[in-house]
Amino acid sequence: MPIERGRNDPPKLLVLLGAPLCADASPGPALRRRLDCALGLLLAEPRARILITGGVPPHAPCARSEAAAAADALRAAGIASERMLLECRARNTWENAVHTARLLHAHAWSGPPLYLVTDPWHLPRATLAFRAQGLVVRSAGCPQGAAARPRRGLARLLLREMLGLCVYLLRWLRVRLRGRPHPPGA
User: Fold this and answer.
1) DSSP state, 116?
2) How many domains does the chain have?
3) Boundaries of domain holding 90
4) Burial of 104 (0-12, 13-18, 19+ CB in 10 A)
């Protein structure tokens, strides 16, 4: 899986964004696509670590966090727990960014950039949310082909992403007008 071009540095930290789980608490289709991408990158770069973010969204079919389900799937695929850092509180993409920034601050992370692992249509909104928190991010280069597209509801998904991007632009402006990202402890 190609990493976004621009630098020759191998990824040091991937950030896997959560996605809905199935009723049986297993990864749903979107999370499974993201896991496949993350696994390929982790196998290609054995020194890379992964921060898995995703809590239990409102109206979720189960009480398991997206991050816990993703971590279990990566462990089952042979990725050591020591390479993983979990953030299990975020209920949406904006919260993924806020909680990731706080967690990285608490662990004194100073190795930008972060490589976002998400679906291609989700990447603009996710990138905006993470940059609003003062994080340097790049795309991890997840697949953009037909296999990565949902079979149904593509128009609805794209509309949701466009509306979400507008909301996140307003949030980003509010953060910028305050002069800094959310403080790590807030």
Assistant:
1) E
2) 1
3) 13-178
4) buried
Per-residue pLDDT of the chain (186 residues; tens, 9 = 90+): 334 434 556 668 999 999 999 999 999 998 999 999 999 999 999 999 999 999 998 888 888 999 999 999 999 999 999 999 999 999 999 999 999 999 998 888 777 689 999 988 889 999 999 998 989 999 887 776 545 555 666 677 677 777 877 777 887 777 777 776 554 444
Cα distance between the two ends of the chain: 36
- Reference 50, options 73, 23, 27; nearest CA is 73
Q: Is the pTM of this model over 0.85?
A: no
Angstrom distance (rounded) from CA 26 to CA 61: 11
CATH of residue 139: 3.40.50.620
- The Cα 51–Cα 2 span in angstroms is 19
Residue 78 belongs to some domain of the structure: yes
Strand spans (E) along 26-74: 49-53
Cα torsion at 48, 17, 51, 7 (round to 10°)?
Answer: 40
Assigned domain for 57 exists: yes
Q: Take residue 15 and report the two structure tokens written for it.
A: 């950030």
Residue 186 lies in a domain: no
Give the alpha-carbon dihedral of 37, 40, 45, 49, to 10 degrees: 50
Backbone phi, then psi, for 95, in 5-degree steps? -65, -35
Is residue 1 in some structural domain? no
Q: Which two tokens stand for residue 80?
A: 């050591």
